[in-house]
Every structure is written in structure tokens, then in C-alpha cells.
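OP here, attaching both records as promised.
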Amino acid sequence: MLAAAADPVGGASALVGVADMDMKQRSLDGLVAFLTCFFPHLTDWEAVRYLVLAEADPLVAARIVVDDRRTKCFRPGSAATNGALRLALKCATVAAKHPCPSELAGVWLSMCSSLDTLEKAVSLLNSPGDILHTLAKQTPYVPCPAPVGIGSSLIRPWELAARRSKHAATVTHQYSWSLRRVLLHTIHGFYLQALARMPGGDLRSRYHRSMLKAGHCYGPFDSVTNIIVNTIWYEATFPPLSQLDELDILGTLNLMRIEARSLYGLVSFLCTHDKGLNADQAIRILLDMDLDLAATKQCSGVQEEQEEAFRAAAIAAWHPRPDAQAGFLSSCRKPEVLLLLSDNGGQQQLSSQCVQQLAMLLSSAFNSTGISAQQKQPVAVCERAFNLSMSEGRKQRRDHKRISRKVKAALSRYEMQNSGHACYRLHVICGVNVSVSGRDWKRKTRFDDDYYHHIHANFLVTQDVGSVGSVPVLFFAELSNDDDGDKDSQLLCCPVDFPTPGAESYF
């Protein structure tokens, strides 16, 4: 205070310096927020690295990310890209602490949607004169906020960014943490497709165990076929020792575990088959080939080399029977399997009869290798651990029944609102997040857990189409976490697209 009073000019300069640093930091926060929102799998430090390569140009940085990841489904001007661009811009203005974030985002989008206005703005920025005064006279005539129906008109900013990106630096690093997340997102999409192809009754009563335990996506076929084949083979070769409960919901953490283990197996297969590859190069190959080992040169070779690579994959993926799976995959009768799957209708749901035929074919092929298929006996556990496991299992079953009841009620309301009659049948619930919109410290559940207001769920449904095979549809629902079912009618339930290989979560 005394220094500022003695030297007011110096104090003002110090305040200006602080304000200037604050503006720079807020600008950086906004740029990072733009990229991490546009690419949900990107980390903050990776966003900074791409921004350095793009000289702090956010759209140029976005194009560098797309090129670096070989994102095949990126379409400038598409509905998905435009929606992500709007959301990313709003997040950036909020992160930058702009006083009017929604208005700024609306003006920017509206200017970009008008080719004449955008060209005027670019010419003003490249010409001398009072730019701010001229732009201020232009913006009152721009509608705000941006119209919801803006479509291909937002392609022009990407075209301009493509010109500027020609002078940007090239990517200097091979592997990033976010690439692993992109691959996991792709693998999750493959598991959803595999779940959709399995017959609902068999999946809920038998094959949920073998898929979550040994249904990995590596093998001699495409990823979805590998999941189905590995699941059916393990169930037929190593059946459970006791009767399984029928489940119409697969735990999210269980799916994430088998998906992560599949990624470890894929990388280990490539690195074992080709000793010159490292993990970074293997991940790049998987990204380029959409995780299809059958499309890589490493999947061709003599049976001994194949078996060694599949054994390494099974060990890295924590397969319960790595030697057995390696022997099976290296000697699998591919033509017969593919013929049986193609006869059932391509992408349509498999029939129970087809699954039984596959089980007989795969188990007979495995038994001919001479490897013992005797099932292991469970390991004895102490009484305390057993009681704790049983208590947790009972709680999980109660939660599953409650969520299943809510999903079926939401699906029934969706049917009545859109078709007026029941035409959908629940296939399986394949993803649940019970911790949405919270946490609410004022409320506790009866089990003394933290309370959240909403539940997000993904589930597959089939249509009643008579004798014609149906293609399952993926749905998303936002449900109330309260036990009062009437509140669910005010929330969301709608069909969504399956995840696209190599894409962000919104493409």
C-alpha cells in the first residue's frame, strides 16, 4: 500500500502487469478447455503440446490432433462435429472467465455460419485501421445466439484452418496416453456389437460369464467375431461348475476390465510376433488397422509363431487358460466358422441354433489338439471373506434389479410416446453410471452410500419383427435415482449410434 501511494505510476504498471498475466492465463485455460472438450480423450498436457505445434491456433491444433490420430470419421460440417464445436467453444469461454460466455460463443458461431460476415472479419484482421471499432459495428447485425440448425455452414472455419495448418510443425512424439483411451473406446464399441449379436436368452443365462471372463477381442478374425468365438469356445470347453443366475445387466467395471485386458493382449501379440516393435509402434498399428489383427502382417505366419504370440497375448490379458486359448486360436478352423456366421445374416443377431453349432464346432476343433479341458476347482477362501463376498453380491443384485426395473419402465414409456404400442424387448443393459448429478450431502441412501440424483444407462433392445431377424438397437437413458418411478418420465430415453472405431465419443 505504501509503495503504491509513493509511486502511483509504478503501482499502476504493476497492476497492468498482473492483469496482463491474468489475461494470458485465462486465454490458455480457454484454449486447453476447447481442445479437451472437443477431444474428450485428450489430457491437459497433451492439449498444451498440440497448441504449441499450432502456435496457439485452436482449430489448427484440432486438425493436427485429427491427423495424428488418423481419425477416419472426422467430417467438418457434419452434425456431430458442429455439435462438438459448439460445446467446445462454450466450455472455452467459460474456462476463460469471459463475462458473457454464451453470447460470445453465439456471436462467433453466427459469424462463421455466414460466409460474407466471416470473410469480412478475416479481411479486417489482415488490414490496418481501427479493427475493434469496425468489428463492433459488424456484430450487432449478427444474430445471437447462433441458430440451432447451423449445419454445413460451419465448414468454412475448418477450411481456413486447413490452409494455416500447412505451416504448422509436425508431431514429434509417437505415443500419448489419450491414444490408449481412444483404443479402449473403440474396443468398447466392439463389445457392444458382440453383445448385440449374441442371442438374448443365451447371453443372459450362460454367456455373460464367459464373455466377461475370457471373451477377448484378439484372434484370427475381426474384433467382434473374435469376442463371439472366444466367448462361445470358453463356455463350451470350460463350463461353470454350478448353475448361473440369469442376468439382464452387465457391470460397467466388469466390461471395462475385459476391454483393458483385450488391449494388453493385442499389444503383446504384436510385440511378441515382431520383436522389432515396441509398445508405441504396436499401438499405432492397432490404431491404423482399427484393432483388426487379421488385417496386419503379424497375423500371418507358421502355426508355431502364431501360438507363441497368442500365448503372450493370453498371459498379458489374464486369460484363465492361456495355453489352451493359444492352442485353440492358432489352430482355429477359420473357413467353417466364417461360413457359419455369414449364413446367419451378417450383422443380425445370431440364433440359439447357430450358437450351438458354433459351440460344437469350436469344442471339437479344440479337443482335436489334445489339450486337456478339465475345469479347475475353486480355491477355498476363509469364512470372513466368503461372507463379505456374499453380502456384496446381494447388494449388487438388489441394485441390478432396481436399475433393470427403471430401464424397462423408461423403454415402455418411450414405446408409448413414439409408436403407441410395445415393439421393443430388452436385450441386455451394457453400461451403468449411478453417480450422476451430485453428490448430495444432505441425503443418504438406506445403505449409507453417497446420494446422486440421476443414473445414466446404455442398453440394447431388439424389435419384434416376426420371423425376420432383427438388428439390436443401442439406447441411452437418464433415470432418476429415487425409488419413485413416476419421476423417470421427465428424463431422457433415446436410441444412439454405436461407437465408431478410432473416433472420439461423439463422432
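Record two, same layout:
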Amino acid sequence: MTGLVASVLLAGSILAGCAGDDTSEGGSGGERITLYSPETPDFTKELAAKYEEVHGGKVDVQYAGTNVLVNQMLAEKDNPKADVWYGGGGILPFEAAVERGILAEYIPDFAADWDVVEDGIKMKHEDGKYVGIEIFVLGFSYNTELVTEEEAPKTWEDLLDPKWEGKIQFPNPAASGTATLMVMDQMMRKGEDEAWKYFEQLVKQSNSMPDSGSAPTKGVAMGEAHIGIGFDFMAYEQKSKGESVDFIVPDQTPVLVNPASLIEGGPNAKGGKEFIDFLLSEDAQQIMADWYHIPINPNVESKTPLTLEKVKEVAVDLDIDWVNENYDRVRNEWKDKFQ
């Protein structure tokens, strides 16, 4: 009977995708930590390797676009496979997921004393459904061999200048959390009718709308586009590799935390909490800083030229309640209009 039970349990763990079957492979309790993340695969693998080095165990990183991962977590709601969701182009997809029952409550001790909103930036969820890990700034990368700093766009309206026709790339809002943020921000500021008119023009200016949030910046580095819409660290990362890329922080733009959340009912809640704690540690924050992210931990200095002090003045207010009510509808309307 003991052998039969052990076989059933082992088979169940394989079918559930929890590859750890002994304490030498697992994190807490001998179980693997499964991380869902749309962030750069090499970056998240480096985080996972550091966690394994410091804490032992095994972190299984599963990569896909933000909206793809959200749909996957919804499909797995009755039998969750992930322990932690980290990253998604900022807080908007996390806010939209709060009412769907896929996020558990957990705030690390490191963030326990944070205000929910600090300097106009929402740092964590009021009910503990997510916590900010780093700061992202949405803006424009540009190819420095094709565009001078003086002529590069400085505002979102500048992207509609006829000189940029066929020279812009931005991510597909149906797949990318980065691009969904862009769309929601314009709607909150302009109203929906005017925002749709804006995007009808912006789509005509573009030569590609890839699914990945980082792809437009890579396209700029390769000379496939003059201007790419994306986050700050994407441009500075390419620049550090010797690519002809730099970044413009637009006047009035989203500045927000990129969060992590514990998954409701995930197979390794203890390990998931430990991994979120780790993401705010100096070890993990240093990796983020080395990838040109703006760290939240004040003991870590980033390689990026941007700091929270420098960018908070251009941060726009985001109506989170409106986002929660309209996130899926707006994304589906984008599909109907432009795909």
C-alpha cells in the first residue's frame, strides 16, 4: 500500500508539472518553485539562478507575454501550476487580475511599512494582492544613427508627426502588458473617442506591432525602426551592449512599479513567499540594477541614468478603478479594430 501511494503521488506531481520529487531538487518542503514571468528570459533565469545559489532548491521559470500568462492562470484557476507571477509591464494587469481570484495576499516584511501610494506611485495593493519590485518608465527608444536627440519625439503627440510615418514600432496591446498600459494611459487622459482617433493615426505611423514588449526596442537597435515604444531599461540594456540606442522620457507618461504576486492555491506557497522576499533583497535588486532597471531597495544603485527622483515629476495619475472596469474590454476592442 505504501508503494502504491508513493507511485500515485509521484505520478500526480509529474502531471501537475511540479518536477521536484525530493528535497535535493526542491525549495521549501522539497517542492519546486514555479515562476510565471513575461520579463526577459535571460534576466529571469539569472534571478532564478541567484535564488538557487543563496537559498537552494529549484526555480522553474516559464516565459510568455503578460496577457498570455494571465489567460493561462485563469485556465489553471481550479488547479494552479504557478507559485509566483512576476512582472507584466507594471501594475495594470495585476489590478485587472485582483477580482479574478488568481492572486493570493502576501506582502513581504520589507514592504510592510510602505504607504500604498508614495510620491503619486502606487507601491503595493491595498489588500496585499501584489507588491512593487522595481520602477518602470514608459517612453521612446530611438536609433542614434538615424535620429538625433534634438529631433527625437519628446511627447506622445510628437509620434504623430508625418516624418515618423513607417518608422515606429510598438507592441501589440492584445498580447503585451507594456502596450496595454500605453492604450489605457491615453484613454484616461484623452477620453476613449479621442484616444481611439490617436491610435488610428499611430497604427498608420508604425511598420510593425510585435507581441513582445521588448521587441520594438530591439527593432530600433537593428535599424528596423527609428522609434520604439517601450520601457526605459529595454533601451539602456541595448545601449550597454554597444547598440546605437538611447531613451527619451516623455513629458507626462506612466511611471509605475513592476509587481510580483503570490498565486492563489499555488503548489508551493511557502516557496513562493520566499521567492517574493528574495526579489526585494539586495541580491535580486542588484541583478535588476545590472540589467538597467530602477531598483526599489534604497541600498542598491542602478546603472541606469534614471532615478525615481528624476522621473516622478513626469508621472501621470492612473485611475486604477477605471482600469479594473475596462482592461479586458479595451484590449478586446483593440483586437476588433486593428487585428
